[in-house]
Amino acid sequence: MAATPEQLVTDAHKLFLIVATLAFGWVFYLLAPVLMPFFMAALFAYLGDPIVDRLEERKLSRTLSVSIVFAVLLTVGLLLFLVLIPLLTAQVGALFKRLPEYLGLFQSTTIPWLASLGFPVEIFDVSSIKQNLIDYWASVGQVAGSVFGYMTSSGLAILQWLTNLVLVPVLTFYLLRDWDDIVARFRALLPRRYAKQVIALSLECDDMLAAFIRGQLMVMFALAIIYTIGLSLVGLELALLLGVIAGIVSFVPYLGLIVGIGLSGVAAFFQFHEWLPVIMVVSVFGFAQLIEGVVLTPRFVGERIGLHPVAVLFAVLAGAQLFGFIGVLLALPVAAVVMVLLRHTHKRYLDSELYSTDQEQG
Hints:
This protein has 362 residues and is an all-alpha fold. Helix content is 88%, strand content 0%. The chain folds into three domains: 30-113 and 124-189, no CATH class; 194-304, no CATH class; 307-362, no CATH class. It is built from twelve helices and no strands.
């Protein structure tokens, strides 16, 4: 049966959309390094838009609302840069300096215990590991010095860094101020035939992204604070570093708990040489897990994401492989959107004649 003109037009539209999507993805891949400041600005604008909308509901102008939110975001960013990063850097340095001591304790306490259990301890060449760590730390210092020397000697690198530093706040301000207009213009470009369906999908994707980007980031931030305070009360010297690491990896369900207990428990044992601090560390993470399950996740995230932990890990690794750091940032939001699209595709398949025919024949 020959195709009708309407079918040919529809097929042409589908082919055009597929080609356009592939072309856009290829251009995005090529321009990924250049797009970093624009992506960061769009992310900050997306995060701040609901707050701006709420301020507008209180009879404040859009520009004034944006200025308030922008000032808060800028202040938080400066505090993180000026306070948190130096503290983390200092703790990382302290960790590497104490690693030889920790390895010595491991050799004198843990290896004999493992040997008594029949574990093949020959695989642990502590002296070699210790020397490799010392050499690695020295090489890190040399690399850091070389990078700093390159940065100070290369005017182009400094100019690019300063440009991005200024460009992100400027882009964020203008995108945040005109966010509603930008969204409205995109909606106006949609074909009327598909506008209702596309808008419904967009709203569902937005709900999913809001649950993850805004909600999950709040959960990660809160967990990092709880972990850090709890480990500080235990007396761990590396409380801030371990708390931040556990908070960051908590986007994968239970991974923050496992990594946090593992690293913090080992650090507590090597620091205090007793089991009571290790038990206290486990109690800290158990309490944080209770708070996350009862308060944080229901309050900020809810049940709207539903990504399986394996899917989360795959999305992050695939994003890192394809697009590097930008891919890591984009991985889970894109996975959430893909899940929405797959859910709608599955629903359409169940309503299709293909599925109904298969069911009747079965």
